[in-house]
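TL;DR need structure tokens for one chain.
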Amino acid sequence: MERVQKVISNLGYTSRREAEKLILEGKVYINSKKAELGEKVKDSDNIFIDGVLLDRKKSEKVYFLLNKPRGVVTTVKDDKERKTVVSLIETENRIYPVGRLDYDTTGALILTNDGELTNLLLHPSNNIEKVYLAKVKGILTGSDIYKLKNGVIIDNFKTSKAKVKLKSYNKKTNTSMVLITIHEGHNHQVKKMFEAIGYQVLKLTRIRFAFLDVKNLKSGEYRMLTKKEVNKLYSLGREI
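>> reply
TL;DR here they are.
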């Protein structure tokens, strides 16, 4: 017997975090009874999500790397009918993004139906690197870099230590290009980190997720991950 949110995630319906949200919203039923968070299910139990029976047959696992373009939402569906990252990928499998990139943020994004790998990559204890290139208003100083490296206060918590490098600056436009590597994935984290030290992010691109980059992918293009790459992603953390 396994927890219902883990079953939903492992079957590729959505991530475990989103499955937990569906349960808390009362949208998941086990047989004829509303599911509770952490409730365990048997193989013979029927699971319904929004009244639709979940197919518990194991589906083929697929893995995609997308160079997310600007103006696309990182979600499976959008109530404002905006274009989603899922709509950019041709597949018959029900996939979902691993984590989020803002509407106006571009770059490396993994999409899959593998709930186990998703949970591993998003779990903070596994310290998966996410590397961003930020264009900010203003010329970053050594003191500012030190603050970012050692953590700043956002949303009432201090961010973990980060790697920060001033790549270039332009005095005429009063802008800086900054490489920043973080291990966390809080909402709008990079933008808020710069805001905490008085800088506005004008443009943000995730150039690498773990060891995966999008150098050979144009904006909006994607490719399937190789078996070797998937195995390497699994090796970055442990099963949780």
